[in-house]
Amino acid sequence: MRDVAIIGIGMTDFGELWHDSLRDLFVKAALQAMDDAGVDHIDGLVAGCMSPGLFTGQEHIGSLLADYLGQAPVPGVRVESACASGGMALRTGIAYVASGMHDIVLCGGVEKMTDVSGAQATYALATAADQEMEAFHGVTFPGLYALIATAHMHKYGTKREDLAQVAVKNHDNGMLNPHAQYHMKITVEQVINSVKVADPLNILDCSPITDGAAAVIIAPVEVAKKLKKKPIVKVAASAHATDTIALHQREDLTWLKSTAEAAASAYKQAGVKPSDIDFAEVHDCFTIAEICVLEALGVVKRGQGGKATRDGLTARDGKFPVNTSGGLKSKGHPVGATGIAQIHEIVTQLRGEAGKRQLKDVKRGLAQNMGGSGGSAVVHILEVL
Amino acid sequence: MISPATVRRNTPLRYRLEAAQCADCGKVFFPARLVCPCGSRKFKAYTLPSEGKVVSHTVIRTAPRGFGDEAPYCMGIVELKDGTRILCQIADCEPERLKVGLPVSLEFRKIQEAGESGVIAYGYKAVPER
After folding, report:
1. Catalytic site residues of A?
2. CB atoms closer than 10 angstroms to residue A168
3. pTM exceeds 0.95, yes or no
4. What's the domain count of chain B?
5. Are A187 and A342 in contact (CB under 8 A)?
6. CB spacing of A199 vs B75 below 8 angstroms
7. Class in CATH terms, A125-207+236-384
């Protein structure tokens, strides 16, 4: 297997982008990534997208996007793993490059969510849950994470304010990210008093509905060394794991097993421990998710994610900064694009190009992207050479 | 998705709580499966008990399509007496009454109506002990 590097990155602004179609969003991010890499040709394209059919009526987007990017007849394919589709697109592309099948591959993610009503978008998102055992009964995605939150608060004494603090921190970070959907500081009180969605979660505990795309170009490290002026960012680990997609079928409602399994595999591949990671982008689709992810990644002990957030561990100036991009909460969550946008932030930080939100002396970052209520998880570790 | 075919197919599960138990390791599956993680493909018929307790709960205030008229409504994960867990609505329950450990029993109720096909889907909801 060949070592793989990320040689180019690009992303659109995230938000309600009424004037941009799914194909245009993807191509804008892809062209930025190709320009950043300094390539005008790719050998293949992998697009992460959760549900173009339900959000826009369009399937068969692997070919559509290769064509509109001016790269047909190169192979183009869409991969889907709910909200982890972006992470899966990168992992799939890495397999192509590491195996020697292709040299230069574009891994992108896109979701166009605002062509449909809020009710239709909620329905489309709920298809990531078990249709027969969960959605049938009227549960929503906020509802599933609310069930995780209630269980976590009951089992570990996690406080309502701890959940709110995740949103407050990520909105603070999003203020410094020009691509973020929300540039809006919020307070713990505002989160707790915002409109109720699924108790104990309120609207300010939830990531928004967002249009957007992100893309990266990957190549063998040896090729990257010949091409690049910028620091080379190597993929040190790429891991994926699954779990029951029905939340209630898990032994421990508070434990994100797929994330824990993927993280364990990633640490082994990279030959590192959690304490060797400098910073992370994690899947904060709801505030409770970030708390549970910290535990599953082994950054804190089980049950300590809320307290760690309260104590400032994950703040930008904390010992383990999490979601410097603003996370899904503030940057926005175009579901298929999210996993690639996380990689965009890690590479930006490792190259020292993060401007006002730049972290000092970071060499190794982790991205954790999750599908559904935790039925799938993808973990990547990136290192600057 | 509700259609005449899905309602009919799920009748044993939703009307009669029919599950399956692995003949080799004893694990109970609801819904029934064709293969157990232990490797066995042999199952025995098994009916879930209808009594249990709430292990986590929420109140759905922004409802999905088909449930809008009912919001807000209570939902929970219920651990039945044999340890099997299910997710369902908690009916006839004020949100203030919800708590981990609340004793409930499953009752046969209407869940939702399909728009175009007009099929009414029935199933189980948990009701707190009176």
Report:
1. 83, 333
2. 22
3. yes
4. 1
5. no
6. no
7. alpha beta
Q: Looking at the structure, give the CATH architecture of the domain made up of residues A4-117+209-227.
A: 3-Layer(aba) Sandwich (3.40)
Residue A67 token pair: 């064509």
Which among A138, A200, A248 has the least Cβ separation from residue B63?
A: A138
Query: A79 forms bridges with which residues in the sheet?
Result: A48
ipTM for the predicted complex comes to 0.97
Q: Could you tell me if A121 lies within 8 Å of chain B, comparing CB atoms?
A: no
- Amino acid present at A242: T
Buried b (16+ CB within 10 A) or exposed e, A189-205: ebbeebebbbbbbbebb
Q: What is the pLDDT of residue A228?
A: 66
**Are the beta carbons of A173 and A330 closer than 8 angstroms?**
yes
Q: A137 — contact with chain B (CB < 8 Å)? A: yes
The predicted-structure confidence for A344-381, as pLDDT tens digits, reads as follows 999 999 999 999 999 999 999 999 999 999 999 999 99
Q: Verify whether the Cβ–Cβ distance B61 to A146 is below 8 Å.
A: no
Which residues span the domain enclosing B90? 4-128
Count the alpha carbons within 13 Å of A306 in the hemisphere toward its beta carbon.
19
A146 vs A372: CA distance, rounded Å: 13
Token pair belonging to B111: 């869940």
- Would the CATH topology of A4-117+209-227 be identical to that of A125-207+236-384? yes
Give contacts of A198 with chain B, Cβ < 8 Å: 58-62
Residue type, A336: G
Task: Please name the residues between 280 and 309 in chain A that touch chain B, using a CB distance below 8 Å.
Answer: none
Which tens digit of pLDDT belongs to each residue from A122-167?
889 999 999 999 999 999 999 999 999 999 999 999 999 999 999 9
Return the SS3 of A139: coil
A171, A331 contact by CB (below 8 A): no
Averaged pLDDT, B57-67: 92
Q: Enumerate the residues of chain A whose CB falls inside 8 A of the CB of residue B66.
A: 138
Bond preceding residue B31 cis, omega within 30 of 0:
yes
Q: What is the pLDDT of residues A316-337, one digit of tens each?
A: 999 999 999 999 999 999 999 9
Length of chain A (residues): 385
Strand partners, A218: A6, A105
CATH code, B20:
2.40.50.840
Comparing CA positions, the residue from A137, A372, A150 lying closest to residue B87 is A137
Q: How far is CA B38 from the centre of its chain?
A: 25
Domain ranges for chain A? 4-117+209-227, 125-207+236-384
Phi, psi of A243 (to 5 degrees): -150, 175
CA dist A83 and A258 (Å) reads: 14
Cis peptide preceding A321, ω within 30 of 0: no
Hey, is A206 helix, strand or coil?
strand
